[in-house]
TrEMBL record:
PANTHER family: SACCHAROPINE DEHYDROGENASE. Residues 5-123 form the Saccharopine dehydrogenase NADP binding domain. Coiled coil: none annotated. It comes from Kribbella soli. This is NAD-dependent epimerase/dehydratase family protein. It comes from the Bacteria.
Amino acid sequence: MKIAVNGASGYTGRLVVTELARRGIEAVLVGRNPERLRAAAGKTGFEVRIADIGDQDSLAAAFAGADAVVNTAGPFARLGAPVVRAAIAASAHYVDTTGEQHYINEVFDTFTDAAVDAGVSVVPAMADDGGPSDFISHLVGETAGPVDRLTVALWYRDGSFSRGTLRSLDPNLLFDGALRYENDGWTTYGAASHATWRFPSGDAPVGVSKAALPPVATVPRHVPVGRMEGLLGGSFDALKVITPAVIDSLPEGPDDEQRRQGRWTISVEASGQDGRTVRGEVEGTDGYGKTAVIAVEAARRLVTDGAKPGVLAPSQAFDPETFMDFLSEHGVRWRVTEG
């Protein structure tokens, strides 16, 4: 098995490289800067291949011979599509770590037919906010039966963002441009359904705002649901005014200790058409580290276990319960409860 990592010299990319080396999976590191790529490779012995995202042929050539591609280079709305196209051209499965809701819908709309024709699986949003939230939403929806309303709330605290994440967070799309699924399609909307949300690890309700979360783009593709929306816990007013110059002045990302201190919680509530309420909860630490674990395991499963060709939501590509059980081995806690 050979996995290509696009953006391997970036913050998340290096964590993916470390995870591949830890698991003994052969890798090819792809990017533009030879020195940064060699530094990312370190003593792993991984091959380095140089390719520019603006040169489609060189990018496809860099992926040649790889069984799957893990793409960690954002903003995905600007940089993602050429990588998907090159992976398909190289007959390689594709996984990425995007959290960009609009981009996820774009991947489904643009690449489904090409992926089917090439016989490869394309699975976006395999990160700490995308994969687990899709899996737990599927398990909640399965328990609730036909779902009238499904709400997903995400809460980060005690950590910090990488520069790459901040560059990918377009406040206009993340908040005002958030999509809600209803009437068999996605649409922008006004006020969120909740002003506060009680998370399992919180002592009191937490203030929330509507947000463009990844599962709103993926879950309705495999869970029959009347309406679905996403909520983000905490205050993110600073994101609305932060400038590119300020982002450039920040550290590349949290150090190891800061990563370990960061906590994240996903809380899902489904109202069934029969009146039942089902809740699902996922909690973990070190979101960036868990993203590397999730992306590498997803690529590995596509290669060894297979999935149907096309663009797939996480729960369409993988069994949600066994994937969540795998994450439990890495300190992620999850449960589904009725009532």
